[in-house]
């Protein structure tokens, strides 16, 4: 992570090399040396400048990388149509399945593709935690706009998921744009800027949900939406508080529509509230209106909560902030 943070300052990178199983963290100076060596080995195999290769690692903390194995492995790097799927599988640790997606987006008369893969199922909590995400597009994108767009998308996707409340080392999300499809470079305010950002957000949200769905021990996917908040930041902290609540998770796991736990988590979130305005929906069944419970069929909510996905929606009815 430290090496990559320095290398991306140039706004240029051409390859990512990843190892799974060992985090290359908490091993002293050897960790940085091995990260540099891993990037150099990949650069030799790909005939690139070493500074244009970004290394990433995931796995056990406190164990040194098996550099002999890595040097032998990178010799087999090759460009193939199956490579993306193979990479999605190769980076897994405790995940049960690979996470990959690709979408197309249009800029005037030209079509571009944006794809991504990710791994992560444990030690997942807002601020990404121990997860890796790698994205690429054949569009040409200005490096500054690329960074701004990635930050925008990550803050609305990977940084909003939680599995176990724990974070760890090595969290990394990288996007590469090679311009191979041609066309005008996309930058802030150009014709394709909004289409690109929408595609990037779509990919990141999909991958983030797949990480949450594949969480260690997870049986359900809980989606929390907050609208009508005083600001977007208030909506974010409110949604995070509800999604991270152990009591909310246990209620959903047990199929118990104990909505008081949701409101309690909202209350301690720190978001600005007027308790006399709040509306609450569980799987679009209205549970609370203007801060008061309304009659609902408990059985219908229990049935809805028995599925693999449960949607919680809170309308604070203050301003237009949403997350």
TrEMBL record:
GO terms for molecular function: L-glutamate N-acetyltransferase activity; L-glutamate N-acetyltransferase activity, acting on acetyl-L-ornithine as donor. It holds the Pfam family ArgJ. Keywords: Acyltransferase, Amino-acid biosynthesis, Arginine biosynthesis, Autocatalytic cleavage, Multifunctional enzyme, Transferase. GO terms for biological process: L-arginine biosynthetic process; ornithine biosynthetic process. InterPro entries: Arg_biosynth_ArgJ, ArgJ-like_dom_sf, ArgJ_beta_C. The keyword Protein transport does not apply. Belongs to the ArgJ family. NCBIfam families: ArgJ, PRK05388.1. This is Uncharacterized protein.
